Amino acid sequence: MDMTKLINMIVNIVTRKLINTGVNKGIEVASRRGKTAAAMTPADHTQAKAGKDAAKRARQMARMARRIGKF
After folding, report:
1. Residue 30 near residue 51, CB atoms below 8 Å
2. CA 4 to chain centre
3. Cβ pair 71, 54 in contact under 8 A
4. What is the dihedral of CA 37, 28, 53, 19, to 10 degrees?
5. Residue 19 has pLDDT above 90, yes or no
6. Cystine design at 31: which of 35, 51, 67, 69 (Cβ 3.0–4.6 Å)?
7. Which helix (H) or strand (E) holds 15?
8. Helix (H) or strand (E) holding 28
């Protein structure tokens, strides 16, 4: 394997991890509606948790759809 392919592979792995982290952080901020954890009421906390759970289920369903699409 030449160096160019190796470098591209490493760059792709790092880029994928950074993008996933950014998307997850964005979903968290959107579920909290931009508030900090200290400024949220208990009702806000439960609603934010529900939003996080919905986002997690959506990611799982997208992953399952990709797997089913391979067959």
Report:
1. yes
2. 29
3. no
4. -150
5. yes
6. 51
7. helix 3-32
8. helix 3-32
Q: How far is the C-alpha of 24 from the C-alpha of 44, rounded, in Å?
A: 19
- Please count the CA atoms within 13 angstroms of the CA of 1 that sit on its side-chain side: 7
Tokens of 14: 């790092």
10 Å Cβ neighbour count for 48? 19
Gap between the Cα atoms of 6 and 9, Å rounded: 5
Instruction: Output 14-20 pairs: Cβ under 8 A, ≥24 positions apart.
Output: none
C-alpha neighbours within 13 Å on the C-beta side of residue 40: 16
What's the CA gap between 56 and 50, in Å, rounded?
10
Tokens 């990709």 map to which residue?
A: 66
This prediction's pTM: 0.57
